[in-house]
């Protein structure tokens, strides 16, 4: 039995439109250790975003098993899934989804309403995370008064301030300049390191993928068994096969490290 914090076994997902059926995930199996930071890479349309949606209970697979922190997402009730999304999951998307009538600080606070914090504690945590993403001096501005990159940083602060158990990031730096993207990535790493948050990031950024604990590549909805890194300084372990298809990635301090020297770039 797997002890991974996130355990995916033989997950399949097909989208149908009339007579046309498009397989998106095909027998996907992988595991992520608690407190690890992993990247999922692969060409557009290979199933990366769909996989994140299933892990975050925004979508469901057709067959297979998905267990996160002991919760079986396939068998969980609607109430359990709602609580899971509210308490355990943080999503970072390319798009901001900020409330236009709220200031930057109030937008961040809005993500903390279900955590049982006092109003003062919510405001303090919101301002702290805005400072971390370089937005402290713009906390009182409304979204319309911010640039796209600034809005993205507010959106990221809103998610990170919740300190979720599992952070799912879909191209979190895709719409940011290099300096802002580096700051966001550093914040995610700090949250992982300081709070033990498990981070799974979809990215096309070669440099970011080379700086995480483990990397897995998808192609045509399937896991490509090789894991790789830019250099041996990044600890990566090849997926191990269990029951024919189950693969668990263990990286960094979370498992024995077998560095790979495979080149990155071919998955762009």
Strands in their spatial order, largest beta sheet: 6-7-8-3-9-10
CATH first level of the domain at 34-61 and 76-228: which class?
Answer: Alpha Beta
Helix % is 25-40%
For the termini, the CA-CA separation is 34 Å
Secondary structure layout:
Layout: E1 6-17, E2 20-32, E3 37-41, H1 48-55, E4 63-68, E5 71-72, H2 78-87, E6 89-92, H3 104-110, H4 119-132, H5 148-160, E7 166-170, H6 178-195, E8 198-202, H7 206-209, E9 214-219, E10 222-224, E11 240-242, E12 246-248
Parallel strand pairs: 3-8, 3-9, 6-7, 7-8
Antiparallel strand pairs: 1-2, 1-4, 4-5, 9-10, 11-12
Helix pairs in contact: 3-4, 3-5, 4-5, 5-6
Describe this protein's structure:
The protein is of the alpha/beta class. It has a domain at 34-61 and 76-228: P-loop containing nucleotide triphosphate hydrolases (Rossmann fold, 3-Layer(aba) Sandwich). It has 7 helices and 12 strands. Strands 6-7-8-3-9-10 form a 6-stranded mixed beta sheet, sandwiched between helices. Strands 2-1-4-5 form a 4-stranded antiparallel beta sheet, covered by helices on one side. It has a two-stranded antiparallel sheet with strand order 11-12. Helix 4 (119-132) packs across helix 5 (148-160). It is globular and about 50 Å long. It starts with 5 loop residues before the first strand and ends in a 20-residue tail after the last strand. The model is unreliable at 228-268 (pLDDT under 50).
């Amino acid at each position: 039995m797997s002890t991974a914090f996130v355990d995916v076994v033989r997950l399949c997902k097909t989208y149908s439109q009339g007579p046309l059926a498009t397989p998106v995930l095909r027998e996907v199996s992988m595991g992520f250790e608690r407190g690890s930071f992993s990247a999922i890479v692969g060409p557009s349309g290979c199933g990366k975003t769909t996989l994140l949606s299933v892990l975050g209970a925004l979508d469901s697979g057709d067959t297979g098993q998905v267990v996160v922190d002991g919760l079986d997402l396939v068998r969980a009730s609607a109430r359990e899934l709602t609580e899971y999304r509210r308490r355990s999951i943080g999503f970072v998307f390319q798009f901001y989804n900020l409330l236009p009538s709220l200031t930057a600080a109030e937008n961040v606070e809005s993500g903390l309403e279900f955590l049982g914090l006092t109003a003062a504690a919510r405001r303090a945590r919101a301002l702290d995370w805005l400072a971390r993403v370089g937005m402290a001096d713009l906390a009182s501005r409304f979204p319309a008064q911010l640039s796209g990159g600034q809005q993205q940083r507010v959106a990221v602060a809103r998610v990170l301030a919740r300190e979720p158990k599992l952070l799912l990031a879909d191209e979190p730096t895709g719409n940011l300049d290099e300096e802002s993207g580096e700051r966001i990535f550093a914040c995610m790493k700090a949250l992982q390191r300081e709070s033990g948050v498990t981070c799974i990031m979809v990215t096309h950024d070669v440099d970011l993928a080379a700086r995480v604990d483990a990397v897995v590549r998808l192609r045509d909805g399937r896991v490509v068994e090789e894991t790789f890194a830019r250099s041996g300084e990044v600890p990566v372990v090849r997926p191990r096969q269990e029951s024919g298809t189950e693969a668990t990635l263990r990286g960094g301090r979370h498992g024995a490290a077998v560095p790979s020297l495979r080149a990155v770039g071919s998955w762009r």
